[in-house]
């Protein structure tokens, strides 16, 4: 459900996170696999304590059903079994997620080439790593293989910092809040160039200061800067992937 908040000016990630936390505190079975398969739009809103339809709500409900069904079919109804089956490998867990759950297959065709970005699959791994402090379910021997999570906010911050530069037509589209088509060349370039830019930043930081930073760390810093600047213009694409 962690995608596409922008059509609702008041909805943020914090509403989603706090809503889910409160729901689980009230009912520990709220996100069990069998329950996920049966949620309706109004029930999801009630779960999150949100007063009106969510952006692309029907897709959020469909993906909840998809996750619940596949967890039950392949992992005994337990997300923990999915994590365990990855053998402490971030890359393996991402491969398992994208193999079993079509809603996580965040890739596009760009000038004859497939581009794989996997924002939500990667952030699932990163959230586990962060929540469990690199231990237990959050222990991954290859956590450094995770890239940034190419979304709306990080590219906007990179642009503000002068790291990304857009052509005049793309700049006008973003600054005027025009929608950019999902899977279009512009959208893929914004997201892929953001990943590449941060990997180059990692290289330069290591070369200049001798510090081995994770892309996750840089992403968190950039994202935190972005959410504090409400006036920051970002690209607008209706997508289930971010």
Automatic annotation (TrEMBL):
Keywords, A to Z? Hydrolase
What Enzyme Commission number(s) does the record list for this chain? 3.2.2.-
Name the Pfam families for this protein.
Q_salvage
Q: Which reaction does it catalyse?
A: queuosine 5'-phosphate + H2O = queuine + D-ribose 5-phosphate
Q: State a single Gene Ontology molecular function.
A: hydrolase activity
Q: Which InterPro entries match?
A: Q_salvage
Lineage, top-rank taxon, reads Eukaryota
Which GO biological process annotations does it have? tRNA modification
The Swiss-Prot or TrEMBL record describes its family as follows: Belongs to the QNG1 protein family.
Chain's role: Catalyzes the hydrolysis of queuosine 5'-phosphate, releasing the nucleobase queuine (q). Is required for salvage of queuine from exogenous queuosine (Q) that is imported and then converted to queuosine 5'-phosphate intracellularly.
In Swiss-Prot or TrEMBL terms, this protein is called Queuosine 5'-phosphate N-glycosylase/hydrolase
* Organismal lineage: Eukaryota, Viridiplantae, Streptophyta, Embryophyta, Tracheophyta
């Amino acid at each position: 459900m962690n995608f596409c908040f922008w059509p609702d000016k008041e909805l943020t990630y914090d509403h989603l996170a706090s809503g889910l936390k409160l729901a689980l505190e009230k009912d520990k079975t709220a996100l069990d696999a069998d329950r996920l398969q049966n949620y309706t739009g109004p029930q999801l809103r009630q779960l999150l304590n949100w007063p009106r339809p969510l952006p692309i709500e029907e897709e959020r409900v469909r993906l909840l059903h998809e996750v619940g069904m596949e967890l039950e079919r392949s992992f005994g109804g337990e997300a923990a079994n999915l994590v365990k089956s990855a053998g402490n490998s971030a890359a393996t867990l991402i491969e398992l997620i994208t193999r079993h759950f079509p809603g996580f297959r965040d890739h596009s065709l760009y000038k004859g080439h497939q581009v794989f970005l996997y924002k939500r699959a990667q952030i699932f791994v990163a959230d586990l790593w962060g929540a469990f402090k690199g231990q237990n379910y959050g222990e991954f021997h290859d956590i450094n293989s995770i890239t940034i999570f190419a979304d709306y906010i990080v590219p906007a911050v990179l642009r503000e910092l002068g790291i990304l530069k857009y052509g005049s037509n793309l700049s006008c589209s973003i600054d005027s809040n025009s929608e950019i088509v999902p899977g279009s060349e512009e959208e893929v370039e914004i997201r892929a160039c953001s990943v590449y830019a941060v990997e180059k930043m990692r290289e330069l930081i290591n070369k200049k200061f001798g510090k081995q930073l994770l892309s996750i760390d840089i992403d968190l810093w950039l994202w935190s800067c972005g959410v504090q600047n409400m006036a920051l213009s970002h690209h607008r694409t209706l997508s289930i992937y971010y």
